[in-house]
Write a structure and sequence with these properties.
524 residues
Length: 524
């Protein structure tokens, strides 16, 4: 038995097969060779078209049609050919057929579309649909405009209900019945419609983040390309110098020349390969960010809240998680940062037996301690609500508090300390007013900073949570403008012409002003 699909193949069945099959089973039905469903057939002498219409559609194909809402109908017609059953499937265009009539085995032209039930209706079924209590309030539209209707998702468990709610406790979408059954104990169940502004705002912020990362990657590509060009120039210059020196030595120098050129070519090629790989990877990631931006753009311009919800859920579930800018180089691989050829002309003619034409110095970047070249990612406006004066930021330090990067600054004009950070994808700030204008700031530990308030002769200790909390105030004998923590028990404090070493209580342990009767500092 085999199955064959054809658009134009007519349904053909041998009358002999029908007759012998019915006579053998003494039944008025035969099993479909494809799906094995029993099919009623007329007398074998009747035309083939009369019983062929009784053949049921393939279960597998029908399931695919029901699942994916395909606009193609498939009907299987078995017939006898070459001593075996052959199932011929005929495709029909159902884009304009009435869905209800189709379920009843009829093919009727559809005229209207019901977005609620997601079915096409003919004139007869439209009348029935409009008087049925469950569907009389449904708004019908033209079949041509059904693609513009907002997409409504049915609950997978409660087929007749639409998904209209979102449980923030469980992080799941739900219909009304699901809310009653599964989310009664949940505290926060909201409508997806009410989430629309928040989802738009979150996706807009994600898109802005993608744009910033795209700019960062673009700048890195430019830097890599500049280094690649510089590498070519350095290589060319080094080759010229090496060959110039080699002209002064005869046979032995030729051997050294070859050795040194090989070394140079190897390092140069390695460096070039690294830069090309970096550029390629950055370009791939740029393309990925562009695709994410396009995906978010499509969701943002869509009138359907479910498109926004799908995009929003994709970010929230971590399907597309791109928050951290990763360093693409392996941690255990030394990378070339720069190289230069240093000629050794003076010794060329002196040490022929142990000839040294020069050496190639290569600077490697240690992945554990050295960071890539700095790239501007973002700027922070020091102004916050409540400022009476234009901010004058004296000093800055950055802490990572419970995974949140926090920028802490001192504002001289507004007499306060400020912190800036991002919480739940929103830019936030905290403000701690002081009695007088602060100057220098230094990090004491992971969650604390110390601030110098010279006019009040104070050193203030502040806890960063990342909100700012005043912990203690230490009185000092001098007006200190700058601070630096040396160890957990002492710090350095700078005034107009000296640096004092203080303990944590503000007592001076040592003062440093001169060396060999010369002043060391001026406004340290």
């Amino acid at each position: 038995m085999s199955m064959r699909y054809s658009e134009n193949a007519p349904p053909v069945l041998s009358g002999h097969i029908i007759a012998t099959r019915l006579k053998k089973l003494r039944s008025k039905t035969i099993p479909c060779p494809c799906c094995r469903q029993d099919t009623k057939v007329p007398h074998p002498s009747r035309p083939v078209e009369e019983w062929a219409g009784q053949i049921k559609a393939s279960i597998v194909i029908q399931e695919l049609i029901d699942t994916y809402r395909s606009e193609v109908a498939v009907q299987a017609f078995p017939y006898f050919n070459e001593n075996k059953y052959v199932c011929t499937c005929v495709y029909r265009d159902l884009s304009t057929c009435c869905t209800i009539c189709q379920q009843l085995g009829e093919t009727t032209l559809g005229v209207l579309w019901c977005p609620e039930c997601e079915v096409a209706l003919c004139d007869k079924c439209v009348k029935i649909h409009r008087v049925t209590p469950t569907s009389l309030n449904h708004d019908l539209c033209d079949l041509s405009s059904r693609s513009k209707v907002k997409r409504r998702i049915k609950c997978t468990e409660h087929k007749s209900n639409r998904v209209e709610f979102h449980c923030q406790d469980c992080g799941k979408a739900a219909c009304q019945t699901c809310c009653i059954i599964y989310h009664r104990a949940c505290k926060t169940v909201v409508t997806i419609e009410s989430m629309k502004p928040g989802m738009k705002a979150a996706l807009m912020e994600k898109r802005l983040g993608m744009e910033k990362r795209l700019k960062v990657r673009s700048k890195k590509v430019d830097i890599r390309n500049e280094k690649l060009q510089s590498n070519f120039r350095i290589t060319k210059s080094a080759v010229q110098n090496i060959r110039l020196i080699c002209q002064t030595a005869v046979n032995k120098i030729k051997q050294k020349e070859t050795q040194l050129l090989d070394e140079l070519n190897t390092i140069s090629q390695t460096y070039a390969d690294q830069l090309r790989a970096d550029v390629k990877l950055e370009e791939i990631e740029m393309q990925m960010y562009r695709q994410h931006c396009e995906f978010i753009d499509q969701a943002l311009v869509s009138d359907c809240e479910m498109d926004l919800y799908d995009a929003y859920q994709a970010w929230e579930s971590g399907a597309v998680d791109m928050e951290d800018v990763r360093d693409t180089e392996a941690a255990d691989t030394r990378r070339i940062e720069d190289m230069i050829f240093t000629p050794d002309t003076d010794n060329v003619l002196k040490v022929l037996d142990n000839l040294q034409l020069g050496k190639i110095d290569v600077t490697y970047r240690d992945q554990g301690t050295c960071q890539p070249s700095p790239v501007l990612v973002d700027t922070i406006d020091g102004r916050v609500s409540g400022d009476e004066e234009e901010p004058y930021l004296q000093d800055v330090t950055v802490l990572v508090v419970d995974g949140v990067q926090t920028c802490v600054v001192t504002d001289y004009n507004n007499k306060c300390v400020k912190s800036f950070f991002t919480r739940n994808n929103h830019s936030c700030h905290s403000k701690l007013p002081l009695d007088n204008s602060p100057h220098g700031i230094t990090q004491l530990n992971e969650k604390q900073v110390m601030v110098a308030v010279p006019l009040s002769r104070q050193i203030v200790t502040v806890e960063v949570t990342p909100d700012l909390v005043l912990l203690s105030t230490t009185k000092t004998r001098a007006e200190y403008y700058s601070l630096a923590v040396l160890n957990p028990s002492c710090l350095a404090a700078g005034t107009w012409d000296c640096v004092d070493i203080l303990d944590m209580a503000g007592h001076v342990l040592r003062s440093i002003t001169t060396y060999n009767d010369d002043l060391l500092f001026a406004y340290p």
